Write the structure tokens for this entry.
Amino acid sequence: MTSIFKVHYDWRPPPYLRLSDGGLIDKLGLVECLRRRVRWIVVSDNGTDAKRPTLRDLRHAIVTARRELGCSFSVARDPIIDVEDELDNYRRRIVPYVHLRVTYPLQMPADAREAQSRDARAHGGSHAHAVSDLFHIRMRLPHHDRHAVQPLISEAEIVDNAAVDPGSVQGRGRSELGGICSECCTSSPIGRLICGRFPNFSTANQFFTPTVFANVCRLGFELADEPVRKLIELRQRVADAERAAQHV
């Protein structure tokens, strides 16, 4: 029961501790970033609500941050839009990703100050911010995806930014990839039945084949391209504004 309620009240430590991956509290690792008031946050979400994504993990993190940290959330592209409406826009594929702006209360909670101080000592003077920009990316295939299965990732692609050899692209669609841990069975209906269909695999299989791993990496790169470009652009604008303000 202690692991469920996540609370231990006693002046003495317990004889042992059970550590989890945080799934009982925050599967995205988002709340701790908000607790530290990190300025730029990118969340990659591969939760289990793939077929009809409700973004339940993001919603849960938002509720926790509001309750414990006093955070306020707004839609970055248009603050008039309600956050719930924007999450629904994403669910219905009207927007390709979620970009929220987080505003913090003036008074920082004691545990947040302690966490931020530890980060400042570890990273050489980082400081808490008054706002954060949060980019949420959901691991899912684009609407009516027609991409074929892509080849393994080569060293030349990473080091030299080389293009993918068209001849190495397979004819079958990547949505037909199964999650079973055998290269010869990735296109088998049994593989999709047991471990799910790309990219929404069951955690029952912890071992991706080279082909599945390469295609997951490529899809993640594809989905992150637009929000990361937006983040870089916005970060540059903020830095330019801060430099201009220093000279006023």
Q: What stands out?
A: Strands lie at 40-45, 72-75, 98-103, 131-138, 196-197, 200-201. Residues 210-246 form the longest helix (37 residues). DSSP finds eight helices and six strands in the chain. The chain has a mean pLDDT of 81.
